[in-house]
Amino acid sequence: MNAMRRGIADHMRRSLDTSAHVTSAIEVDMSKVVAIREKLKKEYQAAHGVNPTYLAFIARATVETLADYPWVNGEIRGDQIVTRSFVNIGFAVELADGKGLIVPVLKNVETLNLLGIAKGVADLAQQAREKKLLPDDVQGGTFTITNPGGYGTFHGTPVISQPQAAILGTYAVVKRPWVVQDELGGDVIAIRSIMNLTLTYDHRLVDGALAGRFLRDLRERLQTWDESAY
């Protein structure tokens, strides 16, 4: 076992020994985000050389939601609950040849618009793959997003990165038949782009009702995405 795998193993084992892990899941109709992303892709790539990924959209909506749920962005420190007014998001990046994961941290994401997040994520991911990250680039995270959905998976139970309180899992966007209301208020079946999101949280700090409300509000932001707001 190489040093990186040993470090990951120790960190994950310590997390499971420390936190009471619980995972909640929700389905999100990403159709509006899919359409806006397609529209912005050419614009962002031509003007800034950046591809707006689903991660950028989810990170932007997550930061807004965390403002209403400070415990999800907090930590337990001894007997104290610590909350913050800033959000530093870690996101898992796979290294070449399956040699492990590294989690660079995008700092003060609450100050960034959609373009700023897309550019920040792309830059840090590239530095991670080129082994150019500095120690400060992988420290100070307050919340983590992991994206196994790039490989087609639709559900998972990620392990929390200590000392954080929660980790969001994003999964494959899949076209599925979906029940929606027509203009007369009747139920009809439509094709929609659906993504599962999971929130794994430390049950010592976050209970199921709080996690459920957090996921509900995050889903609402993604399903009613207002392009002009970001």
Description:
This protein is α+β, with helices and mostly antiparallel strands. It has a single domain, classed as Chloramphenicol acetyltransferase-like domain (Chloramphenicol Acetyltransferase, 2-Layer Sandwich), CATH 3.30.559.10. It is 35% helix and 26% strand. The protein contains five helices and ten strands, in the order αβααββββββαβββα. It has helices at residues 3-18, 31-48, 54-68, 114-129, 208-223, and strands at residues 21-29, 75-77, 80-82, 89-91, 93-94, 101-102, 105-106, 143-146, 166-181, 187-202. The strands form three sheets. It has a six-stranded mixed sheet. A two-stranded antiparallel sheet has the order 2-3. Strand 2 and strand 3 form a beta hairpin. The model has no long low-confidence stretch (mean pLDDT 91).
CATH superfamily: Chloramphenicol acetyltransferase-like domain
The CATH first-level class comes to Alpha Beta
Structural class: alpha+beta
How many structural domains in the coordinates?
Answer: 1
- Helical percentage: 25-40%
Q: Which segments are poorly predicted (pLDDT under 50) over 5 or more consecutive residues?
A: none
- General form: globular
**Spatial strand arrangement across the major sheet:** 1-10-9-8-4-7
How far apart lie the N and C ends? 44 Å
Radius of gyration: 18 Å
Q: Could you say what the CATH architecture is?
A: 2-Layer Sandwich
How are helices and strands ordered from N to C? HEHHEEEEEEHEEEH
Continuous helix count: 5
The overall pLDDT average reads 91
Query: Sheet bearing the most strands, described?
Result: 6 strands, mixed
According to CATH, the fold-level topology is Chloramphenicol Acetyltransferase
Strand content: 25-35%
